[in-house]
Fold:
Amino acid sequence: MAKHSYAQALVDALHDSLAADDRVSLIGSYVLGLGPQRHLMDRIRQDFPDRVVDPPTAEAGAAATGVGAAMAGMRPFVDLGTGSFSFLAWSQITNEAAVSCYMSGGRITVPVTFHLLHGVRGGGAAQHSHSPQSMLCNAPGLEIVAPSNAADAYGLTRAALQSNNPTVIVSHARLLGLEAEAHKTPVPIGRADVKRRGRDATVVANSLMTHYALVAAERLAADGIEAEVVDLRSLAPLDERTILDSVSRTGRLVVVDECPLRCGIASEIAATVAERGFGLLRAPIVRVTRSQVPVPYSAVLEAAITPDADKIAGAVRKVTDKH
Amino acid sequence: MSEPLPEQSAWRLLETMLLIRRFEESVLRMSAEGHFAGHYHLYIGQEATGAAVISVLEQRDRLNTTHRNHGHVLARGADPGRAMAEILGRASGLNGGRGGTLHLSEPGLGFLSTSGIVGGCISLGVGGGYACSQKKDGSVCATFFGDGALEEGVSFEALNIAALWKLPVLFVCENNSAGAWAPGQGYPTLVHASSDLRLIPQSVGMRAVRVDGADAAAVHAAATEAVARCRRGEGPVFIEAMTKRWPGSNPLWPEPATGVTDIAIAAGERQAAGEHRDWIERHDPVLRLARELARAGGVPRLRALDQAVGTRIDAAVKFALESPLPAAATACEHVFA
Structure:
């Protein structure tokens, strides 16, 4: 099986979506940021010159253009750049795109796709390191996906551009260069994926945290602890079934997420399992998240507040009582 | 060409501009040597604007700046050692390693904040002006931003509020997109439907002037007049300072495209060379002012000044490199006051 970077898979998905559907266009072509992979987007600019535009630094305007065009029957892909900049387009995403279907009694559809680069990326400090997806989860009406590898990035991007709903794709800035087996297979929105089987504890993760969870699981396996890693892939809608099925096998749960602790994705998973799977649990749930603090600049502080494989392994040892 | 500055003022401005230039050249070196990781923006090519505007401000005045802040913070008198330490993420940095290169801030010198969000600065500056007007002490707020900030919607809201309420705000638009790269090369260039940015503040009735941002005397004259109007309660003024973008500007990580500035070029002892000769000879604001002073018989003083600035920057770099990293246990401090 050929290996592709996450960035390449994203570009392939956009190219195939543009080729498959005339209604698809790109508002913002720096989907891969300004880093080393950015030239991969040249192929799309060359092959679809009339369907790629680069807006001014105007996130609200770009998002509104996408939302309005979607209401008029198009399927725009709006790139918002660094996830922290999505706050400038917050009203258009959460208070226009997310609510219009419901507010119209189902008569308006808003098939717009937003993409942003989220996460602690190294020296980005407080204003360039956000993971806004937990806040977006408080906007009913949005589909939110957080792929962790090339195949999921491809499948979920294709699915987002085929969806009749407003969809947000969050790509971790540190995933872009990561290579994995590339399939061009569909990935349905709303379906989690068990990335590793294990009997002793369930580790629920998403995006980059899935990799840290898999690294932690390898280390734990060396000590005879078998962790099962569930990759959410979609944050909204949430695949409760796959999570509860896993916990029913392991009886123990660690939830990992890069959003801050309070009201985050990890809190939501923990609450769902406590509510619907309390009888399955043999130990208290542990959350491993970013600390409740803006992201600092200095590398040593950044590491202190961000989840990593060591912290995840420590949490699994705690819930399995094998310190 | 503007009226030349009085000689002593010109030397003071050159000292500030040279300090900024040598500081930024050191930042480039620190990055190349791997002393910090994040992306960053340099003020090379815009020194005349920041140095001249800030020289007009008084201690009671407020100001704020952007991701391209190093020059402004130094021009206002922040310690170069603590500024460099912040860029290296050290505990003794201006902001304890929390902010880094994009957010150098010195509230003790009147800075409101240093926002890395495009449009963030121009709008917060209106708040600074509102505070000045509430105090009724004749103070003003100078807010620095790039041409890109005017692409954001909040900038229009901010300009309108400032004009409507006649707030004492000096809007300093540092337009460094003139002659920048063509679109599609990765670095944003001017993407306004109009090529005359003055039309935007003028649409809300604001006085707007354009100056050569590489001409320290011209910026100084424009800022002096603008600040006087603000202090008299005549409302905000918008200055568009035009500079030719420094060739080392790159997406995220600048390159030392023009090398270490050679003051001997200003003294007429050497010629600029290489691919970027035109920028060095015609658009480098530091060499431009240095050349004027050198022509007036100031070559020995110029050399002594460069040496003194170099010594100061060397000490700043040494201080920063010797500063300890913050303790991991302190990562959650300062979330609240």
